[in-house]
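Ops channel
N.P.: pipeline sanity check, posting one input/output pair.
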């Protein structure tokens, strides 16, 4: 392991248990929901038919759970300025999305809702020349008591 990777590991490890804060609010639109439905071929009426969705308990269309999950890439970008510390990325080659330990879709995201992510670094492990970082995310819905989503997301940071 390089000195840069060892230093980065120490810096990431010091984050375990720390709240990284929240990102910016993001509005989920019907156009985004429709585009996601087209890409995934999931055109269930609850997502794409506003008239039919009025008769559901939600009273409107809702985003696909997987759309909310896929938005983590964007929503997580503003959760921690500390992650931008150049020492963490000296000798850094690439990041790999390694997967999820847990994903739960807790509450629906109604069209027009604003969502944002809150993150906590929950685990850091050395894997050869890589650092595996697990972050626990909660996607909040503005004005709602329950979150849209909770997930444990694993990323691998590969160092040269």
């Amino acid at each position: 392991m390089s000195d840069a990777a060892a230093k980065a590991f120490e810096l990431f490890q010091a984050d375990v248990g720390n709240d990284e804060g929240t990102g910016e609010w993001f509005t989920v639109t019907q156009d985004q929901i429709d585009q996601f439905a087209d890409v995934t071929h999931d055109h269930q009426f609850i997502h794409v038919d506003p008239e039919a969705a009025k008769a559901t308990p939600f009273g409107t269309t809702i985003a696909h759970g997987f759309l909310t999950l896929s938005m983590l890439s964007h929503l997580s970008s503003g959760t921690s300025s500390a992650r931008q510390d150049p020492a963490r990325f000296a000798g850094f080659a690439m990041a790999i999305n390694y997967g999820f330990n847990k994903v739960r879709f807790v509450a629906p995201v109604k069209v027009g809702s604003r969502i944002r992510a809150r993150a906590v670094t929950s685990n850091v492990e050395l894997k050869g020349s890589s650092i595996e970082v697990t972050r626990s995310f909660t996607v909040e819905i503005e004005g709602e008591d329950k979150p849209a989503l909770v997930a444990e997301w694993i990323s691998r940071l590969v160092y040269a």
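N.P.: looks fine end to end. The chain has one domain: 3-24+64-159.
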